[in-house]
Every structure is written in C-alpha cells, then in structure tokens.
Amino acid sequence: MINYYISYSNPHRHFVDFEFTAKTNGANKMQFQLPSWRPGRYELADFSQNIQKWAAFDENNNSLAFQKITKDLWEVISEDAMEVTITYNFYSNQLDAGSCYLDEHQLYINPVHCMFYIVGRKEESYTLNLEIPSTYKIASSMKQEENTLTVKGYDLLAESPIICSDSLQHGTYEVDEITFHIWFQGKCNPDWEKLNKDFTAFTKSQIKHFGEFPVDEYHYFFQITPYRSYHGVEHTKNTVLLLGPGNEIMDKRYEDLLGVCSHELYHTWNIKAIRPVEMYPYDYTKENYFRTGFVAEGVTTYMGDMMLYNSGVFNWEEFIKTQNQNLERHLTNYGRYNLSVADSGFDNWLDGYKLGSPNRKTSIYPDAALCMLMVDLEIIRNTDGRNSLHSVMKELYEEFAQKDKGYTEDDFRNICVAFGGLKVAEIFENHIYGTEDYIPTLKTALAVVGIELKEKKNPNLSAQYFGLVAVKEDGKVIIKKVEPNSVTDKNKIAPEDEITKINGENIEGKLSDILKDCKDEVTFTIKKKFSEKAIPLAIGNYYQLLELIREEDATAEQLTLRKVWSNN
Predict the structure, then answer these.
(1) Residue 567: its pLDDT value, please?
(2) 3 state SS for 345-414
(3) Given this model, what pLDDT does residue 353 score?
(4) Is the peptide bond before 281 cis (omega within 30 degrees of 0)?
(5) Rounded distance between C-alpha atoms, residue 56 and residue 36, angstroms
(6) Across residues 447-456, what is the average pLDDT?
(7) Residue 352: predicted pLDDT
C-alpha cells in the first residue's frame, strides 16, 4: 500500500504539497517515476517542470540521499530504511480538462501530472488523504470514505481526477443499472431535467451499439469557466470537460456541451477499453508512438456526433453542422497534401496539437472523421445496410478489449475491409495512408445516402477575399494561415506577419466588419520583423468551401440506406 497525504497553504500561490510514503520491502534503492505525458494527449508534457522542492526521509524523519536519474525519475538510497517518505510540491496553475489547478475556491488534481509510482511496483494500491476545508465536497471516481480516497494500481490512479470545492453541483442518471454522475464546478445553472433526458438518450444508444458498458460507474466532471472555453479529456471511468461561459452552457453552448460529452463517453470504449497494441500497457516515461490516431480520435469524433443524431438528441441540421465543420477544417488545411492522417497522428508526438510549421500535417480529428464517414457509408453500401462502422467497432471491442489485448493497424483495416470491400481498402490506401484529394471519394460515398456536396462561400471574409486567416494577439492582428498561391501568398505575406493598418487606417474592431464594405481592392499595411509596407490586394475567392446537402430527388434505395445510416 502506498499512502499519499495531500495538503496546501496559501492557495493563491498555486502550490500543492504532497507526502508519499511506502515500505522499502528491503530494497537498497527505490526509484520514483513521474509521467512525461498523459493518456489522451499524445505529446510529451514533462510534468516534473512544475516541481519546486523534492526531498526524501526514512521512518525516523532522517534525510535520505537521492539523485535525479532523468528529467522525471528520482532514485533514493533506502538500504537502512524500513519506510521511505518523499515530500515535494507541485505548481498547479493551469485550468483545463487535463491539468492541475489550485486557488482559494477549489483544489483540482489530475494525478498523472503530479503523483509518482515506484518503479517495479505500479500495481500497488494507493490511499490518498486530502486535507481540505471542512466545507469542501470531493468529486472523484475513486472509492471514498470522508476525505480519504483509495484506488488499485497506478494506471487507475492516473485516470482518476479529483475536484474539491464548496460549490460543486451534483446530479445522476441511470442506464442499465449503471449510475452516471454529472458534476459541475463553477458558476452555472444546470437544467437537470434537460441534461438527464439528453444524456440518457445518447448513453443508451452507445451502450446498445457495443452491447455493454466497460465499467461499473461513470462521472462527468465539468470545469465551468466565466470565459469562452472548450476542452475534454477521457479517462477509464470519467471525463473532465472545460466549458464556458457558464451562463451559456444550457443554450448557446449546449450543442458544444452535448458534442464533447458524447465524444468523451464513446472514448470509454474506444481508446480506454479498445486500445492500440502500442499502448498495451502504457509507458509513461516516453513517447508511445502509434499510427492509429485515426481510430482513437477519428472514429470517436465521427461516432460521438452520429450517436447524438441516431439517439434523437441532435436533429438533422445539428448533426450535419458537425460534419460541415469537419469538412471546413479539412478544406482550410493544406497540410492535407503533405502528410497523411496516419502519419500525422504519429507526428503528434513531435509537435503536439499546435499549428507548428504551416501546412505540414492533417488532423486525427476532422480529417480522420471524414475518412470514417466514408468508411461507414461504403460498409453500408457493400452490405446493403446490414453492417456499418458500428459493426467494426463492436468486433474490435469483443475480439480485443474483452480479451485484454491491443489491436494493430492491420487488425482495424482488415475488419473494415472485410465489411466494406475494395472501396474501403482504397480509402485506407488513398486517404488514411495517402494524401490524395478526399473530395471525389467523399462525393461517391455520400451518394450512397443521397447527399451531395455544394460550393459555399467562406464566411471568414479575410479568408474568402485574400486567402489569409488572422487573429488578435495582445492587441495585434497576426496572420496565422495563408492559402498557397493566393493573392496574399503571391504578395509575399506570410504567417506571423502583423497587419497594422487597413486602407491606411488603424484597425478598430473585427476584421470582418472592416472588410464587409470593401470593393475590388484593399491595402494592407504589413509589418514583418525588419520592415513595414503597404500592399494592395485584389479581392478574390479563396479558401473555398463545400457543404453537405440532402438531395431533393434521392432514389428509393438512397432513402432506404439513409434511414439505415441515421437510425443505425
């Protein structure tokens, strides 16, 4: 048994204090490992940079010699000790769905960031004793008795975030005798009747498609912010969801709330239970390279939205909006011509989730979701509606997750091709593993259910008129994306250049408001690192988009398969 004592003082400083105590079991040396990354975020994070102080003691409080072996591995000399206690603090000042945060209102911990395991002893049980104000409640999926939490093994500890505060709101719903908990931290007014109705519907749909739920209970932990935010992280028995502003989550942001929750719940099967062989088991000390991000995130992105539609929570307009958003992100990312979805997922370990080098890679979210949409429709066509991508995922669950083994790239591809035939094999070759244009294949797949692609003007006027996308950073308008061969590109304007004036005037307000009344030509004053110049740009039509539209004259066969697709 490993014991943790967690406390803090001066919460405005954001440091959480940890005491970790364990028997030596006669070992002369003990190594204490902190993870370098967290499951669900396929990039290195090097959490140990948040540790300010670190020390080791025996059972008599005598200091023990130690040294740091790697950036996040400490070795303690324990030959004369029966028990070792390590003490350290951890800077917790990042509020998102996967980090740690402490202030005067809450203690929020993702253990994978800040809690150690003993090398060679990952399977031991953990007891966590929390010293928190008497008015605080604890939201956690770990076993709880007052302020003490227990969990078996480091993997489950790493997957068990904790929120402690005096303002937690809590509700539950049940599906198949499994209790699902909904927790809100932060100022908001949940409509519990509406939440329970919609959450029950999409939860039932997901369980129906897999046949069972992988765990015995589940928790949604919401971190609600007063500002606009959106982030979700999946875990074995829970998910953390950052969303805001709090006064919009039940109306303007409600579709986003449902979307992220359905997505993260689907992860309970796909990536938590159904795992790639490269992550079976996790190695927390280094990159876990894998190329099946198109399964982990592409399938989940597509299926999370599909489950909202087939359960009746989303109507057609709400569902197709999600697919058009995926298509827009695909069409405005010229990395689609440079790196495949499979290779882009592998390279998340290189440059994470940031833009990085312009137009370098695709995304395992929207791009892979479009691939999975094509695969799904081709399976439906090939089997006359008897099977779909749901059939693939259920087979993966039964043949791999339930048999405690990881799947390979070939396993997933072979199951898809077995259901979908030659056209599915071509989708893998051309789009998942290749960089060929999606649109012809997407048109063919959508025709199965009587949907066509129509041209659409880009609503972002700077993108449409000039092929540039800019954002405000610290009061400056900074260009972030430029379409290759657009008028912007041809005039040698590039990402990270600053727009200081438009038509000789300082920029006040939104760029779109300024551009909406412009005709024919606009003069941009562009500031580079060592120069500033006024450059006239002719208005054109760039970053062109397409959108999915239902055909008015769909055939009977198309309508039949559309019904199979939407109700499957």
Answers:
(1) 83
(2) HHCHHHHCCCCCCCCCCCCCCHHHHHHHHHHHHHHHHHCCCCCCHHHHHHHHHHHCHHHCCCECHHHHHH
(3) 84
(4) yes
(5) 21
(6) 97
(7) 87
Looking at every residue in the chain, the average pLDDT score rounds to 97
Question: What is the pLDDT confidence band of residue 355, given thresholds at 50, 70 and 90?
Answer: confident
Residue whose structure tokens are 């000390």: 285
Closest CA to 31 of 87, 85, 69: 69
* Over residues 89-118, mean pLDDT: 98
What's the pLDDT tens digit per position in 506-517? 999 889 899 998
Domains with residue ranges and CATH for the chain: 2-165 (2.60.40.3650), 168-268 (1.10.390.10), 299-451+552-568 (1.10.390.10), 461-538 (2.30.42.10)
Residue 346: which of 421, 416, 401, 293 has the closest Cα?
293
Q: Measuring CA to CA, which residue among 480, 489, 479 is closest to residue 537?
A: 489
SS3 515: helix
Contact 127, 96 (CB under 8 A): no
Nearest by Cα to 176 from 204, 214, 195? 204
Residue with the two structure tokens 């409509």: 191
| DSSP tag of 280 | S
How far from 208 is each of 200, 245, 369, 401, 441, CA to CA, in Å? 12, 33, 21, 17, 30
Q: Residue 90 and residue 68: Cα distance in Å, rounded?
A: 17
Nearest alpha-carbon partner for 553 in 455, 447, 456: 447
**pLDDT tens digits for 229-266?**
999 999 999 999 999 999 999 999 999 999 999 999 99
Question: What six digits make up the tokens of 120?
Answer: 């060679």
Distance, CA of 392 to chain centre: 22
Contact 498, 532 (CB under 8 A): no
Angle in degrees, CA 63, 69, 71, rounded to 5: 110
Mean pLDDT, residues 63-90: 97
Give yes or no for a contact between 14 and 101, defined as CB atoms under 8 angstroms apart: yes
User: Residue holding tokens 């949940």?
Assistant: 190
For residue 356, name the pLDDT band (cuts at 50, 70, 90).
confident
Residues 6+ away with beta carbon under 8 Å from 18: 4, 5, 6, 87, 88, 89, 90, 114, 115
Task: Report residue 15 as tokens.
Answer: 């440091």
From the CB of residue 174, how many other CB atoms can be counted at a distance below 10 Å? 11
pLDDT of residue 103: 98
